[in-house]
Specification:
Glutaredoxin, 4 strands, 5 helices
Length: 117
Protein backbone atom coordinates (compact mmCIF):
# COMPACT_ATOMS: atom_id res chain seq x y z
CA UNK A 1 0.00 0.00 0.00
CA UNK A 2 1.30 3.45 -0.93
CA UNK A 3 2.39 5.82 1.78
CA UNK A 4 -0.39 8.36 2.49
CA UNK A 5 1.96 11.33 2.02
CA UNK A 6 2.93 10.02 -1.41
CA UNK A 7 -0.73 9.62 -2.44
CA UNK A 8 -1.56 13.15 -1.31
CA UNK A 9 1.50 14.56 -3.08
CA UNK A 10 0.60 12.75 -6.30
CA UNK A 11 -2.97 14.07 -6.09
CA UNK A 12 -1.78 17.66 -5.63
CA UNK A 13 0.67 17.28 -8.53
CA UNK A 14 -2.10 15.95 -10.76
CA UNK A 15 -4.32 18.92 -9.89
CA UNK A 16 -1.46 21.38 -10.38
CA UNK A 17 -0.69 19.99 -13.84
CA UNK A 18 -4.24 19.42 -15.00
CA UNK A 19 -5.15 21.92 -17.73
CA UNK A 20 -8.84 21.30 -17.17
CA UNK A 21 -8.46 22.98 -13.79
CA UNK A 22 -7.66 26.35 -15.33
CA UNK A 23 -10.35 28.88 -14.65
CA UNK A 24 -9.58 30.53 -18.00
CA UNK A 25 -12.43 28.65 -19.63
CA UNK A 26 -15.21 31.05 -18.81
CA UNK A 27 -14.76 34.68 -17.82
CA UNK A 28 -18.24 34.68 -16.31
CA UNK A 29 -17.24 31.85 -13.96
CA UNK A 30 -14.08 33.74 -13.01
CA UNK A 31 -15.93 36.85 -11.89
CA UNK A 32 -17.60 34.84 -9.16
CA UNK A 33 -14.27 33.93 -7.60
CA UNK A 34 -13.13 36.11 -4.71
CA UNK A 35 -9.83 35.13 -3.11
CA UNK A 36 -8.62 36.68 0.14
CA UNK A 37 -5.71 36.09 2.48
CA UNK A 38 -6.23 37.14 6.09
CA UNK A 39 -3.35 37.46 8.48
CA UNK A 40 -1.66 39.48 11.19
CA UNK A 41 0.73 41.18 8.79
CA UNK A 42 3.75 39.00 9.56
CA UNK A 43 6.17 37.83 6.87
CA UNK A 44 4.53 34.38 6.71
CA UNK A 45 1.12 35.91 6.00
CA UNK A 46 2.60 38.17 3.33
CA UNK A 47 4.36 35.21 1.71
CA UNK A 48 1.09 33.24 1.45
CA UNK A 49 -0.48 36.31 -0.17
CA UNK A 50 2.35 36.56 -2.72
CA UNK A 51 2.21 32.88 -3.61
CA UNK A 52 -1.59 32.98 -3.83
CA UNK A 53 -1.37 35.91 -6.26
CA UNK A 54 0.91 33.87 -8.52
CA UNK A 55 -1.36 30.82 -8.30
CA UNK A 56 -4.45 32.89 -9.13
CA UNK A 57 -2.68 34.38 -12.15
CA UNK A 58 -1.63 30.91 -13.35
CA UNK A 59 -5.22 29.74 -12.98
CA UNK A 60 -6.52 32.64 -15.05
CA UNK A 61 -8.36 34.35 -12.21
CA UNK A 62 -8.92 37.95 -13.28
CA UNK A 63 -9.95 39.30 -9.86
CA UNK A 64 -7.21 40.59 -7.58
CA UNK A 65 -6.33 38.58 -4.51
CA UNK A 66 -7.11 40.68 -1.44
CA UNK A 67 -4.76 40.80 1.53
CA UNK A 68 -6.31 41.90 4.80
CA UNK A 69 -3.95 42.19 7.75
CA UNK A 70 -3.50 43.79 11.14
CA UNK A 71 -6.45 44.09 13.53
CA UNK A 72 -8.97 43.75 10.67
CA UNK A 73 -7.30 40.57 9.38
CA UNK A 74 -7.15 39.07 12.86
CA UNK A 75 -10.84 39.86 13.42
CA UNK A 76 -11.77 38.18 10.11
CA UNK A 77 -9.81 35.07 11.17
CA UNK A 78 -11.73 35.00 14.46
CA UNK A 79 -15.06 35.59 12.70
CA UNK A 80 -14.45 32.59 10.42
CA UNK A 81 -13.57 30.41 13.41
CA UNK A 82 -10.08 29.57 12.21
CA UNK A 83 -7.62 28.32 14.80
CA UNK A 84 -4.50 29.56 13.07
CA UNK A 85 -3.16 32.05 10.59
CA UNK A 86 -2.74 33.00 7.87
CA UNK A 87 -5.91 31.79 6.23
CA UNK A 88 -6.96 31.52 2.60
CA UNK A 89 -10.60 32.37 1.93
CA UNK A 90 -12.39 31.69 -1.35
CA UNK A 91 -15.85 33.11 -1.95
CA UNK A 92 -16.21 33.81 1.77
CA UNK A 93 -15.40 30.22 2.78
CA UNK A 94 -12.33 29.04 4.64
CA UNK A 95 -10.19 27.17 2.11
CA UNK A 96 -6.91 26.73 4.02
CA UNK A 97 -5.49 27.50 7.44
CA UNK A 98 -1.78 28.04 7.97
CA UNK A 99 1.09 28.73 5.62
CA UNK A 100 2.12 26.44 2.81
CA UNK A 101 4.58 27.27 0.03
CA UNK A 102 3.11 24.34 -1.96
CA UNK A 103 1.57 25.83 -5.11
CA UNK A 104 -0.40 22.64 -5.81
CA UNK A 105 -1.93 22.70 -2.33
CA UNK A 106 -2.99 26.33 -2.69
CA UNK A 107 -4.42 25.67 -6.16
CA UNK A 108 -6.30 22.66 -4.85
CA UNK A 109 -7.78 24.68 -1.98
CA UNK A 110 -8.99 27.36 -4.41
CA UNK A 111 -10.49 24.81 -6.78
CA UNK A 112 -12.18 22.86 -4.03
CA UNK A 113 -14.22 25.89 -2.97
CA UNK A 114 -14.60 27.75 -6.28
CA UNK A 115 -15.67 24.93 -8.57
CA UNK A 116 -16.32 22.08 -6.16
CA UNK A 117 -13.37 19.93 -7.24
Amino acid sequence: MKDLKKIVKESYEKIANDDCCSLDRDDQEDERIKIQVYGSGCSTCKKLYEITQKVATEMGVKNKVEYISGPEGIQKIIDLGALGSPILVVNGKLAMTGFSPDVAKIKSAILKISVGR
